[in-house]
Amino acid sequence: MSLKYSLHSFILLFLLAALFGCKQSTAPSTKTTDSTTVTHKSGEFGWVNGSSSIDRKDYSYATSSASAAYTNFGPNSTHQLDITLTVYIGAKGIENTVELVMPMLTPKLGKISVGASTDLTNGSITMKIDTAHYRSIAGGTIEITKFDTLNSTVSGTFSFDAKDGNNQVHVTSGFFTDIPIYYGAFHPGLVTATVNGVPFTSQFAQVAPSFWTVDSAYTMVMSIDGDNNGDVIKSIAFGIEMPMAGYYYDLNGDARWYGSFVQSGTPVISINSMSGAVGRLTITNFDWVTHRISGTFYLAGYDKNGDYIDVENGEIDNVQWFML
Fold this sequence. Notes:
Blueprint: H1 3-17, E1 44-49, E2 52-55, E3 64-73, E4 78-89, E5 94-103, E6 110-114, E7 124-129, E8 132-136, E9 140-148, E10 153-164, E11 167-183, E12 190-195, E13 198-201, E14 210-213, E15 219-229, E16 232-241, E17 247-251, E18 257-263, E19 269-272, E20 278-287, E21 292-302, E22 308-323
Parallel strand pairs: 3-11, 14-22
Antiparallel strand pairs: 1-2, 1-11, 3-4, 4-5, 5-7, 6-9, 7-8, 8-10, 9-10, 10-11, 12-13, 12-22, 14-15, 15-16, 16-18, 17-20, 18-19, 20-21, 21-22
């Protein structure tokens, strides 16, 4: 995992920490939009492990997740597709995760042989059940049946055997449907703004701007990486419950909606609407069919160092959103 990817994970956790616990809100609106007929069929997955089976439809989106990454790795910067599927089972939330990794120079369909987890020339699969870590052995198969570069999703099937010491699992009937490509997305849309007069753009960010649900109530989180400078990452985030086109959300300390700006480094620079910053997010388009969002925003306030941070002229242009 690269340093920039690790920094992005830190920024994302920092942003999400302030969001959870927010309650439902009714935002001022300029027109009415019906969002009561929403259905979600993307991001499904499942598998059979011996006599037990997993199917995401049996779990809430608060206790499951699915995402993909299409990234380069190694000395020759060869691309690989990495798909992670997770559910948390029972009252104790026992983690069951399958991660599929396969070399893929360009997006393509077809079967990929599964080898040992250390084999970089073939696909490999790892499985985590609570504290046990199973690693694939030669003999399994991953098949990519759809690689949608327009909507940045991937679908397919898998089967494999894996071992953890003397213990072995035999996984069959694995499938994943329209899993969102969160890292290395295609045609993700664009977010621009200025931060204290300095241009901010997501155009060259390693992680594409994205908007996704974090619970069954459709609380949506938007995370935007911008103009990275070396190992410094600047990120903007919003959290809104049941966003709708034609609505605006004042970011002014009310926990019913949320906005923040974070810049990594020493010290970390951050402002958020729960700690004195104020702003507004206006949604001009929120399409449930094509999963695209557009709008405008601004946010300003003092960070903990006493410096004034002004994020203005924010534009969200046709950014992809999905359910992880």
